[in-house]
Amino acid sequence: MENNMVAVILAAGKSTRMHSSFSKVLHKIYGKSMLGYVLDDIRSIGIKKGLIVINNQNWAGQKFPLPKGIRVAFQKKLLGTGHALLQTQKTLGRFNGDILVLYGDTPLLTTETLRKLVEKHRLNNAACTLLTVTLKEPKGYGRIIRDEKNDIVKIVEEADASLYEKMIPEINAGVYCFDAKEVFKALSSLKPKGPKKEYYLTDCVEIFAKHKLTIESIHTENQDEAIGVNSRLDLARAQTIAKNKILTKFMEAGVGIIDPTTTHIYNDVRIDQDTIIYPFTVIESNVTIGKKCRIGPFSRIRPDSVIEDSVEIGNFVEIVRSRVGSGAVIKHHCYIEDSNIKKGVNVAAGSVVTKESKN
């Protein structure tokens, strides 16, 4: 992606429905924070620079290393999404390119969709290009309002929608490409709405339409991409979807997973073909497993572990920051920590092996 595009991730929410003392975007799904998923998405389409808009209250004491090229902007008063984007004006006010705006609580977006959004935006030289999705039950989402030519003229939030508008199934998924100059002009003319006197980012769309600026959209058939995680229930739902995507990827690559419903594999795991994963197994982040291994039931392989080829791991085995050499056998009820199990070694059932142990 060209250098004249930056990303802005809105992540200043209070986590009210999450009932959490820290920002909801830092909650993890299979070893990676929701914000981490979104950052991965923007990097995958070649965007190297961006801003995360946060509220310092929710981030106090939280450790989140920012990737190179990513900076922070603060929204001290939570006055809505339009006000949140306005906090980037000090940094981006003279920027002449495009801004990709996303929410930090949308971990199920796909690279393919973001790439299509940006391509259409650039192709049509649009002031705004947004992502929409059609839902059978659109309650809670902003509705896309189109005119007789099928052009988007505004987005109406649920609280402000008429009975007729609430029946519209096409909703705003909360992902936008904006022309930077045009969006900051529109933001400066927003009026506060509702009992909280908030400035809605979605109102920029109506301003663009009134000024006859080009508004484009792409539609995704994947409803999961529109899921915003606001509660623990939403988080669990997103985890199930993410889990199934991870397991499907491995099975399609030749990894045998006996029972996907009870198997949990985190992000950043590598497993080679013809390895079999038995039920109730947990494989955490940054783990490498070779080919033709057998990972027994109720096993747990912790981060920074390497399992070489043709290893057999029995049931109720936990491996922590260790390397297991090819052909090794670790019997059931074993604990291996900070160790290097040599090639072909047979570890007896019930063993505890640590870095002080000899094998």
Overall description:
It is a single chain. The protein has 359 residues and is an alpha/beta fold. It folds into two domains: 222 residues, Spore Coat Polysaccharide Biosynthesis Protein SpsA, Chain A; 101 residues, UDP N-Acetylglucosamine Acyltransferase, domain 1, CATH 2.160.10. Helices cover 22% and strands 27% of the residues. It is built from nine helices and 28 strands. The strands form six sheets. Strands 5-4-1-6-10-7-11 form a seven-stranded mixed sheet. Strands 12-15-18-21-24-27 form a six-stranded parallel sheet, with helices on one face. The protein is elongated and about 75 Å long. The model has no long low-confidence stretch (mean pLDDT 94).
Sum up the structure in keywords.
359 residues; Spore Coat Polysaccharide Biosynthesis Protein SpsA, Chain A; UDP N-Acetylglucosamine Acyltransferase, domain 1
